[in-house]
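Same chain as my last thread, 672 residues:
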Amino acid sequence: MAKNWKLETDEAGIAWLCLDKADAKANVLASTVIMELASILDSLEASPPAGLIMYSGKPGSFIMGADISEFGDFGSADEVARLGKLGQGVFLRIKALPCPTVVVVNGVCLGGGLEISMMFDYRVGPTSDSKIFGLPEVKLGLHPGFGGTVRAVQICGVRAGMQLMLTGNPVSSKKALAMGLIDRIAGEDDWRAVALDLVAKKPPLAKAPLVDRIMNLAPLRPLVKNMLIKQVSGKARKDHYPSPYAMIDLWAKHGASSKTGYDAEAESFGQVMQTDTARNLIRVFFLQSKLKKQGNKTDVKIKHVHVVGAGVMGGDIAAWCALRGLTVTLQDREQQYIDPAMQRAQKLFAKRVRNDAARAETAGRLRADVEGSGAAEADLVIEAIFENLEAKQALYQDLQQKMKPGALLATNTSSIRLEELRTVLREPQRFIGLHFFNPVAMLPLVEVIRCADTDQAAMDIGFAFTKGIGKFPLDCMSAPGFVVNRVLAPYMGEAMALAKEGVPLAAIDKAAVDFGMPMGPIELVDSVGLDIAKHVAAILTTGTDREMPETGIDDMVEKGMLGRKSGQGFYRWEDGKAVKPAAAGGGIPDDIQDRLILPMVNEAVACLAEGVVANADLLDAGVIFGTGFAPFRGGPVNYARERGVPDVVSALQKLAERHGSRFTPHSGWSDL
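reply #2:
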């Protein structure tokens, strides 16, 4: 008897198949689920029904995808390929049934969930505007393995099908209908009638548009392949992310053939599963879960947030909170300081909220508040003014007179230790840090900062708030630079030292991007602001025993060369983009990449050894989501372990001998 499936046949002989995974909030295609489906198909093949309609028993959700927790159990490439072929075989039995088949998707339908859906004759999507249909395997360093590389192209065509797989980005029901991925859209009240109508009328099956069928012809595939490779290579290097290139090769060789495409897909899946990239990206997927599991459940609900400081950070924090459904009041000294933040917020809402009524509702949740009256109503007050101890403390003394009992006060400070800030507070143990990163709408991490005696209940509220607005919290002890700034500072400092030595700027940035960083450190310094980089470096030099190199930026800051915000830093900036001169030949040190990357890794180990973060997994997650550290390398500690700790320590020692004591390996390496 199936534990996860329920099969019922109505009076008309139509079989209704419901997937409702036992003891789970969401459906995933675990091996047991697929094995049970195979048994159910035995009975359907032995006695074919008049039609088959599959649906989900989970409200608002269909199938999240494969059970990624089982991926670690897979063995060699050949074994993975064999398992893939078994899964494909089960799904293809649905396609081969001699009766009309319909799948009703009522919510999230990703990965293997979409692959099984594509084996049905007809697909019905929900009325929701949410982007729920997707093949996101590429984001795990993989590609579809249950027939998706074949069926996506067969149904949607080369253009739409390949984009669905190569980007990994989901689409809405409306978009899915336009691209032929689904056949109908139906609400909760009428999906059964729509499904029955499809079974009865048996309309023509979806197939790719004519132009895509022409593009799929063998003589044209090499030309289209080159276009796809050009598109992908602009975003991901093959040596860093091999799976999109594997997908392109599969299609170019087999043209989504039902005869050869499935076996080729399984064999290719087995190969990409063995790559370091896939292993590390799967690890990053689970690191996200670890970040989300921090803290205990709390009954406190944050509904109203009051933000003080309408600069870039404070204004964008306020806008993001409003976007995520909270009531927000934004305070600054005068309206003229709030207006630019409100204008940026409108741009964010226009980009993220397509429905006019919903966008107006979102904008209505954000209110300018020069007088600061919102502080008395807020559940959470976030201070985001300039980095000055006395100014912040004066603000806290005023705020604690206004805030309602039980409300939480937090700071977005990037460098000042909480122990110093909280000395003027009546309840210092309930004061926490909520350190966001710029740009707020893009970077997913928030450092949730505590002191040694911080009330755990206050931290739990911070964790719940952070997760509630769609960010990843990182539990950090109060320390100079916390984690992200502390790890980034030596990286940016070494880049500026290389620039001072005369190494071409573009070559410095290229060395970091070649390693896998999303942006070069010189461009990053310019983006952050040279004045801020100088300030953070001073904090770290004073607060830790780490030596910073000579960077030569003091004169630049005095001359107003602050980077992107002033139009000139290391680079000249036009329309928000750096104008980069071509790298001249020669003058590039052979150890340039290690000089940039290993100080980050060394500082990460220092954070771990000093207890700023509880363990290596959380540290790796924080550095990945806070700095963009090459995700396919799995984080700085994971990178060191894969490269070999003795090798990294030896490389640091050699750098220290050549360039100075700032490269001296931290004593914490012995703990790894």
